[in-house]
Amino acid sequence: xxxxxxxxxxxxxxxxxxxxxxxxxxxxxxxxxASQSYALQPQLSTLGWVGKKVTGQHNGNVxxxxxxVLVRGSQIVGGTFVVDMNSLKVEDIKExxxxxxxxxxLRSEDFFSIDKNPTSTFKITSxxxxxxxxxxxxxxxxxxxxxxxxxxxxxxxxxVGVKGGVASASGTATIDRTKFDIKYGSKSFFESIGDKAxxxxxxxxxxxxxxx
Length: 212
Fold this sequence. Notes:
Elements: E1 36-40, E2 46-53, E3 56-72, E4 75-90, H1 96-107, E5 119-129, E6 139-147, E7 150-163, E8 166-176, E9 198-211
Antiparallel strand pairs: 1-3, 1-9, 2-3, 2-9, 3-4, 4-5, 5-6, 6-7, 7-8, 8-9
């Protein structure tokens, strides 16, 4: 079977936005009074996933439903994002019947249980400056990710910035699916699965655009 390395989508910013030059760690709570709320632009934002298995990989995308980015001055200091799980697509399989079969499996209880959990959410809890990243990331984003009703804290590097009433963030997050009770095909739980194993971690690559 195949696996979801959701996620979270790789990147090229749709707008030329300069990176934030934060001097200190910021948290949504500490900057709440001085922050402005920017509206996520779902039509301009992207979220892609990659899931790997022993014999290959699959990739696709999901769409943001809504969200807000909190901005103070030229810094992103927080944000909340809602993902429409019903929009989940597989991109690497062109044969319609096989594509539909995989999408159906990813929607099932084995994976994301989408009928019961139609949305996933991510809430930023802190953003810490990051220097010297080879990929050009300038911040470490930490927050609470909720999938299948289960919330776990995750952190990942990102390139963030604010310019001309537009806030942007792009990067790739690595997620351990087993922490969200997605254990299908995991060698961590089914040792004799052999070459049918699906890797525990999947990636989500994102490019977020929000406007004032």
